[in-house]
Amino acid sequence: MKTRTKIILLGVATCTLLYAQCSTDTYMGRWLKWRASDILDHEKFPHNDFAPSKSPFYFLVTPQSNFGSIMVTAKESNKEPLEVVIKNSGTTAFLFIRNDSLLYETYNNGYDRASINTSFSTAKSITSLLIGKAIDDGYIKSEGDKVTTYLPELRQIDPQYDQLRIDHVLDMRSGIQFKDHDLPWGDKPKAYYKPKLRKRIMELPITFPPDIRFQYNSYNPILLGMILEKARGLSPAAYFEEAIWNHMGMEYAGSWSMDSDASGMTKMESGLNLRAIDFAKFGRLVLQTGQWNNEQLISQDWINKSITIDPNHKLDEFGKELYYENCWWLYSKNGKTPYIISASGHLGQFLYIFPEKNIIIVRMGKKQGNVDSWTTIFKELSGY
Fold first, then answer.
1. Is it the case that residue 17 has pLDDT exceeding 70?
2. Which phi-psi region, left, alpha or beta, contains residue 71 (left: φ > 0; alpha: ψ -120 to 50)?
3. CATH code linked to domain 41-62+76-140+234-382
4. Residue 218 per-residue DSSP state
5. Per-residue H/E/C for 62-119
6. What is the mean pLDDT of residues 359-366?
7. What is the pLDDT of residue 77?
8. With the C-alpha atoms ordered 96, 101, 103, 108, is the resulting torsion angle positive or negative?
């Protein structure tokens, strides 16, 4: 056997052995073995489980038989029936709700109503609701509080943390270091796969002054989780279950992933796992300005703050109508009032709320799909 061939085989054998020995209890083991995230990640991470409600809330089912035949823009201005787009795009769940009536509900690609979906970054918007609840309950005084009020040890990493407020973190204007790429030394995979997220946060400097500019950063909701943990004295998942989940008539069980069993830090940036029909209930909660069946679950004040547009938060690089407030994506034609309130996640997990028309749309999927813009499709279905 030639020397070169022997070297190649030895290299392959060495890499195979190293791969086999990698533990998914470590960051590099996860990066090597798990690699790209997918909607089955709820099976990989340990998680906090939530029980279904003993008295579930059900939307009124009033199916529109021709809804799937509505022509929508899928690719390069080509129109196709909605049901065709859904089947060909890796969609697992698609719901259209208006005035508390479920007009369209379909599941594809091996999923049904009882199938669990990983939410990815839509969890960031739910984290914002939990911050609002903590303010309502008095555990956090105000979104204007400095983060060092709750985590004074951050000063030892960078004195600029003393200028960082909770609202800066909610608005993705924290300035905290975030190297946005998928290579192992990048912060994108570290925020997702690190088994000790608290420790990772305590290593991060501030790279530009707070409130100067927008930078989408998955460390921000993790930091919010650490503040919740310190303020409430519970894991964020346990507080979420106690303060929100148990009050919303969830039809199925759910869970929120943790970084690891040893650390037990809730993955606030991505790890809420639930069924699409229960995810739609967060849209209903926002539509009703925080009220759930005669209980003011989240204060109207917090919901209003979350959808009040700051003109300085316009994101022209993402879209001419787009703003970001309190971990929600807002679309506005006049720069004052949003006509869409949305939560969006990796691989095309979407919760879209049209407040003027009392519409909720949920789309979840295995991939974004061969679609130019789900936002365009949602607008077409809503009548905009």
1. no
2. beta
3. 3.40.710.10
4. T
5. CCCCCHHHCEEEEECCEEEEHHHHHHCCCEEEEEEEECCEEEEEEECCCCCCCCCEEC
6. 98
7. 85
8. positive
